[in-house]
Amino acid sequence: MHAYRTHNCSQLRSEDVGHIVRLAGWVYRKRDHGNLLFVDLRDHYGVTQVVVDRDSEAFAVTEGLKLESVIRIEGRVTSRGAEAVNPHLPTGEIEVRAVAVELLSEAAELPLPVFGNTDYPEDVRLKYRFLDLRREKLHANMVLRSQVIASLRRRMIDAGFTEFQTPILTASSPEGARDFLVPSRLHHGKFYALPQAPQMFKQLLMVAGFDRYFQIAPCFRDEDARADRSPGEFYQLDFEMSFVTQEDVFAAIEPVLYGVFDEFSKGRTVTPPPFPRIAYKDAMLRYGSDKPDLRNPLEIVDVTEVFQGGPFAVFAKAIESGSVVRAIPAPKAGTMARSFFDSTNQWARDEGFAGLAYINFKGGEGGGIAKNLGPERVAQLVGKMKLGPNDGVFFACDKPANAAKLAGMARTRVAQELDLIEKNSFRFCWIVDFPMYEWDELEQRVVFSHNPFSMPQGEMDALLHKDPLEILAYQYDIVCNGIELSSGAIRNHKPEIMYKAFEIAGYDQSVVDEKFRGMINAFKFGAPPHGGSAPGVDRIVMLLADEPNIREVILFPMNQKAEDLMMGAPSNVTEKQLRELRIAIVGQPKP
Fold it and tell me: pLDDT, tens digit, for every residue of 509-534?
């Protein structure tokens, strides 16, 4: 018999009744019923109920066991009585009558409970993550993550992609988020950077002739945490393809994403390929976001012309100075209490905006600002938005960018309040035709709005003859349920176009040659047209696990301050280490 176990804690069934078995695991729960002691024994695979009779030699050992201690038991498999069968447990028809119990490792007093899914302070959960990971839901999330990655890898290989690993130590980039820098011991004053993405290396693989590359790539960005972004590091399904158009990229990755989401959907519906394509400009107008949640049926409408030069002076004057008016429908909300409309208006103010005007129709009669707008313009509004006799409508009036932002946030809030968001579904879409450049108000210059290595639509002719802020790029994002899974692009593979593109953003040729020397030199030796994308693995698993926070699907995440409370990182290093790197710590740390 094996030293520790003949079966795992999810294996035994009614056909094993009568067998002598060994199990090993953690003491999950204990219940003292007088003459009987019940122990739920848990391992990675599941739970088995163990019963110890008071007359057994094992009783004394078992009675003193602390929860989460590791034990080995030996006993006979018996059937549970009909009234004791647990249909929610794979081993629910049997139990093991223990004849021997050995303590392998005693647990100290627990800083947080393992049994159940009671919410606990995040700092405690992260400091004792190894205990947190024993909890059923979190443990299942990590298994799901592994299964999703295996499925992604299998589907990419089946689609003709080859997996390669790109370097972790590389050069810093002047674009994108902050780099994590690594000082060089051998080259004084110089630094490596951890890759924000394998961007240049995967493009070099295309120049090297590998055609279809992928990897489950670790990426590092020194940026703040939020619900769908972990500070420090993340993983993505990175891929690149040669001799492809934008539609070829879509056709390659859509079946992979659809297949993975369908495989782990648990009955939830998934958008079948081809996924909808929405131009960036249309997304900002109709949804107020370049990450639209298509489970939400509401669409924003531009109604500036309805208010322009009209009797509602507040909006009319704002329009004269460059503002627009965006309308957010609220179906069947007209009959709701006025408090619904007033609280939504107050919410907008609390978010830092001027507020949301509204009209609430009751039986066709309009309240709110209807009387200020006048019957003709109200009729025009009703026709333009196809409003029903008992609908409501909110209005965001501001400069275009702010109006879009407020309208997009209001669209989400109204749909949530009215319970309009589709349940149990994954709704995918592509956002396409991003602007190549945007105006940076802080720096007062034109900057790249997306990926600087993207091919501009119109190529060199567009760069030479169009207003930079009107140039579109072959850039695209894939979005699911309002969460951006990936950015991608058809790449700029022509050196002369790349030099010009960077020149418009304020970088001369010498900067390109220095910062991107590997890639720009490679392009001078024959580069194929190529493109790709990189869906985020963490976000995919977060959606499939139905978790609101990405930390719930990462084994050992940092906290919001980018601290590893369990391992104590970031940490101080020794003077010897600093001397080797010829680095001095200057100044006092921030409190």
Answer: 999 998 888 899 999 999 999 999 99
